[in-house]
């Protein structure tokens, strides 16, 4: 069963608590449970990781080498300046889907630039937490399992 990792960057551990108009009311645990259910339907294994520290995420990604078949990542604010994160994603060697709960292109100008997008197969932005499920479904299809 292929492994797909789901990684969240800074402040995403506070989903359901922070700015619910922007990020919705679902907690990260609720989002994970929905993803677990979808993964069971799609016959893939999920592994979750969240950190507020770029270096910790880079360490985690390096540990995925040779284990993961795909990656869903919401880099949070690291989207705009996380160059070491970008390099770790480029070196991972698996398809990556960048997810943003809010539409980063409809927010402050500085949020519309992603240093991650050039190394991602695709970007899902502004579809709420449903974007994680869409990214998972796409990855499974890309891996020839869906």
Name its key features.
alpha/beta; Rossmann fold; 146 residues; five-stranded parallel sheet; single chain
Question: Describe it for me?
Answer:
The protein is an alpha/beta fold. It has one domain (3-142): Rossmann fold, CATH 3.40.50.9100. Helices cover 36% and strands 18% of the residues. It has helices at 20-23, 28-42, 54-64, 83-92, 130-142, and strands spanning 3-8, 45-50, 70-74, 96-100, 122-125. Strand 3 (70-74), helix 4 (83-92) and strand 4 form a beta-alpha-beta unit. Helix 2 (28-42) runs parallel beside helix 5 and helix 3 packs parallel to helix 4. The two termini are 13 Å apart.
Helical residue percent band: 25-40%
Could you give me the name of the CATH homologous superfamily?
Dehydroquinase, class II
Radius of gyration: 14 Å
Largest sheet: 5 strands, parallel
**CATH T-level fold name:** Rossmann fold
Could you tell me the mean pLDDT?
94
The CATH class turns out to be Alpha Beta
| CATH architecture call | 3-Layer(aba) Sandwich
Structural class: alpha/beta
How would you sum up the global shape?
A: globular
Question: Separation of termini?
Answer: 13 Å
Order of helices and strands: EHHEHEHEEH
């Amino acid at each position: 069963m292929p492994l797909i990792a789901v990684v969240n960057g800074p402040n995403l551990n506070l989903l359901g608590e922070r700015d619910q108009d922007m990020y919705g009311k679902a907690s990260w645990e609720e989002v994970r449970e929905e993803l677990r259910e979808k993964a069971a339907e799609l016959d893939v294994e999920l592994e979750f990781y969240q950190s507020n520290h770029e270096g910790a995420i880079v360490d985690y990604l390096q540990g995925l080498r040779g284990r993961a078949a795909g990656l869903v990542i919401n880099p949070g604010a690291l989207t705009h300046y996380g160059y070491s994160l970008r390099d770790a994603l480029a070196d991972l060697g698996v398809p990556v889907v960048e997810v943003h709960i809010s539409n980063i292109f409809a927010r402050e100008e500085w949020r519309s630039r992603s240093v991650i997008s050039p190394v991602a197969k695709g970007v899902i932005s502004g579809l709420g937490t449903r974007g994680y499920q869409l990214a998972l479904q796409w990855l499974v299809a890309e891996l020839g399992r869906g």
